[in-house]
Amino acid sequence: MKINYYGFFLIFITTFLTQSPAFAQASEKFTIILDAGHGGKDPGNSYHGFTEKDIALKTTLKVGGFLNKIADVEVIYTRTTDVFIELVNRPKVANKVNANLFVSIHCNSVRNYQPYGTETFVMGLSRTDLNLEVAKKENSVILLEDNIKDNYQGFDPNKPESLIGLTMMQEENLNNSIILANEVQNNFTNNLQRNSRGIKQQPLWVLDAAYMPSVLIELGFLSNREEGEYLNSEEGQDQMAFQIASAIVQYKNKFYGTEGPTGLESSAPKITPRQIPAATTATLVPGAPIYKVQLMASEKNIAMIPSNFKGLNSISNTYDSQLYRYMYGETNSEEEAQRLEKEAKSAGFPDAFVTTVN
Prior knowledge:
By secondary structure, this protein is α/β, with parallel strands linked by helices. It has 11 helices and 12 strands. The strands form 3 sheets. Strands 4-1-5-8-6-7 form a 6-stranded mixed beta sheet, sandwiched between helices. Strands 10-11-9-12 form a 4-stranded antiparallel beta sheet. A two-stranded antiparallel ribbon has the order 2-3. The longest helix is centred in the last third of the chain and has 23 residues, at 234-256. The relative contact order is 0.14.
């Protein structure tokens, strides 16, 4: 079946011009739609006994709980229980009330148990194969629905050409979405020391069809047991939810000029930041091979502090051929060096490798 992107685009533009907040009467309250990903017959991903739909819902409700303490904020949920909500109806909730923001909350996973960290998606086209797979996975819930042809005008989450059509629809709000995503990721990194995998643009239906700034937050990887345990815990959900709520308030203050106490300050949960263990610093044996893990090479002389190296400690460097080579750890054990290599890759250095030094 040929997809009628032109007709699809005209439908979107017509609806946008008549229902977008930019052309609608301003609401007295700042309205946020909180969307807990998956639900009901769609569990999302599940690893080590952790289930995405449950963690997403609990965390989302906690975000709303924090935001409801602010007098001029209204929170609306797409779901508050373990029910299946068709993907097409999630942004419709936001569009119907001309909401100011749409925030969808999920958990990540991969077959490799090592990767961990947070990432936030905004609408847009990416050429990265991994991101395209994320888009297909998050959009694949469409296949569980009835009336796919009528609801999605022929959109097929398994076809890359369908994803390309989505990029036509969110130019108006993309910049503001990126600003909100940046607030979210900065809070996770600076306040909780969570590993940040960055902000990424991706054609996700749930973001595309919302007529306001919107983000999809991946709280972390359930496939990583340690991160899954954190996200499955009351403490982890409280901490992550508070940082999301704070980011939304920061965004609101930036664009709507709100000043003074927000009501969130007294509700902040106790934070026990995740500590990345220091690399092995055992006494080296004279004359034995010394192994280090090279993280990257750069022409820049970068300050060797954890915040510049995704939280990793024990950084050293060498300078030759006009390049600084940045190393992680130091050990005589080849086995330990391989462990450090895995740790470096999990922290966000996919090209890290073990090298020997004199």
